[in-house]
Amino acid sequence: MSKKIVILNGSPRKVGNTAALTAQFTKGAKEAGNTVTEFFLDGMDIHGCKGCFGGHSSRECPCVQRDDMDKIYPAVKECDMIVLATPLYYWNMSGQIRTAIDRLFALEEGDGNLLRGHGRASALLMAAEGNGFEDVLLYYDHLMEHLKWENLGHVLAGGNGYVGDIEGKPELQKAYELGKSIQ
Fold first, then answer.
1. Which of 8, 17, 100, 120 is spaced 20 to 30 Å from 92 by Cα?
2. Residue 3 has what pLDDT?
3. Confidence at 71, pLDDT banded by 50, 70, 90
């Protein structure tokens, strides 16, 4: 059965190492019969969470703020899987993706929790100059536990200091295979 997959791409580069990972994941996922919607967060107008607890999950636009998250909320509500794709910045995800993740909280508020559980799955795609992924994996694992999403794994591509460094590396094949495995 076809799955609806949402990729939240937190890289500031449309053509970079993280984009190479998402392209390979997408190729595999589409070959497996899935639909993929990718949001390039750096090109979107997304404001930080205000912590107002004013969201209402069942509304068409669940957050009190009106910005480009309004494009993401409907896709997330309907998807089976969310892929978090990001470069590693100071042992964590980029600010672009962390801002979007914080704003997803509006789907947990108000009239019912439309974010947690619901049979969703997730995966993490990361590119980095170094290989210090331990802290971000701890965060990701805690996030998956909180959201009650099935963790389908991660592809962590270290040693990529410059755009294009990932070309020819085995992590691209791993990203493709992860996408292809989604059924």
1. 120
2. 97
3. very high
Domain that holds residue 125: 4-180
User: What is the C-alpha separation between 168 and 41, in angstroms, rounded?
Assistant: 26
- The conformation of residue 49, written as its DSSP 8-state character, comes to P
CA distances from 163 to 11, 34, 79, 96 (A): 12, 28, 30, 18
28: Cα separation from own chain's centroid? 17
Which residue from 68, 150, 64, 69 is spatially nearest to 104, judged by alpha carbons? 69
Mean pLDDT of 55-66: 89
Mean pLDDT of 143-164: 95
Sign of CA dihedral 24, 80, 11, 145: negative
Q: Identify whether the C-beta of residue 81 lies closer than 8 Å to the C-beta of residue 152.
A: yes
Domain count along the chain: 1
Whose structure tokens read 């076809």? 2
Within 10 angstroms of residue 120's Cβ, the number of other Cβ atoms is: 18
Residue bearing tokens 């947990």:
108
What is the DSSP secondary structure assignment for residue 115, as one 8-state letter? S
Using CA atoms, how far residue 29 sits from 2, 117, 175, in Å, is 10, 22, 10
77: CATH: 3.40.50.360
